[in-house]
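Input record, target 12 of the design panel.
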């Protein structure tokens, strides 16, 4: 596999790209285009840099009209690169509205002019943005997907998707288990796995409390949120959870920030009200702290209004934090409620139709369906009750969630199967 990206200026700071070398240059789109290349985590990546300065910017997105022009230029220049370097991939796999133009441009301008071999696969990561471009790519792709089976079901009636529903499916994303590995994580005090979950998480919890100034003399659950603070993420429920957790004697930790200044101001007020030795609010992007939160928290809350896939709940489980989630999209496909989803969990996790058999319990969290505070309380209170009233069960649950595989192992096989079916047509 090879990957093609625009070469934004801000990428130059990445330590992963220090070995970048010149590959080729091509005249296209009224300017010279320089192509550089680098091996990133074992994969060959090409970066296209047009001399018109289109990608000499500090962020991926700017204004919608500017972005549309930039992304269209990139899509076509990527196809031009394939053509001019004599590449004939089996599959061109493009993602979201920003590379949606590739599908039509390929069939219209390249398939009959030398780049004859590829079939096109397109993946929707979030239908909230660029629905028109997404509909056009869906029409011109041989197969198109989204990032979980449940989200596929939720958006199947959308006018961009529905006319092409016969070639549409959902495949869950995976997490990078090298980056998220509690046995080998520089940001944790001690390494741990499902065999010593309690000790590992206790050490992390103490380190987290030290880092955030939370009191250490309380035997209480620690509940965390790691999230962008946008309406999609259920901000009214995140706020409610902070009050509910502290009201029930727990400690609440939030890491995230809001692009909308009004929402950020609301959360600043929340921090003034609840911040202290039982609540910590950290409004920034801080990767080391996120590792410590996943490891140090007993539960991680993900109350999204919609969630195409969601990685937070899967990372949480990797670190033995029990997810408390709203049943939507990928959250529904990865979190199975301990009280209500035993049958579904046995089938999805173990491929068994008998959840009563020894070792067939695949349940791994607490979930709720509604969008109001009462619905959230239903799941959160059960999780907190479980922690207080049946610690032994809760610790077993933490160990169990650590053993479940949310890596790319299975999704990658699903994609390979999809690619073969696209090639067969």
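The sequence produced for target 12 reads:
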């Amino acid at each position: 596999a090879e990957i093609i990206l625009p070469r934004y200026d801000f990428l130059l700071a990445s330590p992963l790209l220090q070995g970048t070398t010149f590959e080729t240059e091509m005249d296209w789109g009224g300017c010279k285009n320089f192509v550089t290349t680098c091996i990133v985590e074992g994969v060959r990546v090409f970066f296209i840099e047009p001399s018109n300065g289109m990608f000499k910017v500090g962020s991926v997105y700017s204004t919608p009209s500017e972005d549309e022009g930039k992304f269209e230029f990139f899509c076509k220049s990527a196809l031009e690169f394939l053509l001019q370097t004599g590449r004939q991939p089996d599959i061109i796999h493009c993602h979201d509205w920003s590379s949606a133009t590739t599908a039509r441009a390929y069939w219209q301008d390249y398939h009959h002019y030398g780049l004859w071999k590829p079939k096109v696969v397109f993946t929707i990561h979030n239908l909230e943005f660029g629905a028109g471009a997404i509909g056009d790519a869906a029409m011109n792709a041989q197969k198109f997907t989204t990032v979980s089976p449940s989200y596929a079901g939720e958006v199947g009636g959308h006018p961009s998707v529905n006319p092409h529903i016969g070639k549409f499916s959902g495949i869950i994303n995976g997490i990078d288990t090298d980056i998220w590995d509690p046995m080998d994580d520089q940001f944790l005090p001690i390494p741990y796995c499902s065999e010593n979950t309690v000790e590992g998480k206790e050490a992390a919890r103490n380190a987290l409390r030290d880092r955030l100034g939370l009191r250490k003399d309380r035997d209480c659950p620690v509940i965390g949120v790691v999230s962008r603070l946008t309406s999609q993420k259920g901000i009214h429920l995140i706020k409610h959870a902070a009050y509910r957790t502290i009201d029930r004697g727990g400690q609440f930790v939030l890491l995230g920030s809001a692009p909308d200044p009004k929402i950020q101001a609301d959360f600043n007020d929340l921090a003034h009200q609840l911040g202290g030795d039982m609540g910590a609010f950290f409004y920034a992007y801080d990767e080391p702290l996120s590792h410590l939160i996943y490891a140090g928290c007993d539960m991680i809350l993900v109350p999204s209004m919609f969630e195409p896939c969601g990685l937070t709940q899967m990372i949480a489980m990797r670190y033995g934090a029990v997810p408390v989630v709203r049943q939507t999209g990928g959250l529904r496909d990865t979190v199975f409620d301990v009280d209500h989803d035993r049958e579904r969990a046995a089938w999805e996790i173990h491929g068994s139709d008998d959840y009563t058999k020894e070792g067939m319990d695949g349940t791994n969290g607490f979930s709720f369906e509604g969008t109001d505070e009462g619905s959230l309380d239903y799941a959160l209170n059960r999780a907190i009750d479980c922690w207080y009233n049946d610690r032994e069960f809760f610790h077993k649950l933490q160990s169990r969630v650590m053993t479940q595989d949310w890596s790319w192992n299975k999704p990658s096989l699903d994609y390979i199967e999809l690619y073969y079916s696209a090639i067969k047509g």
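The longest strand covers residues 31-40.
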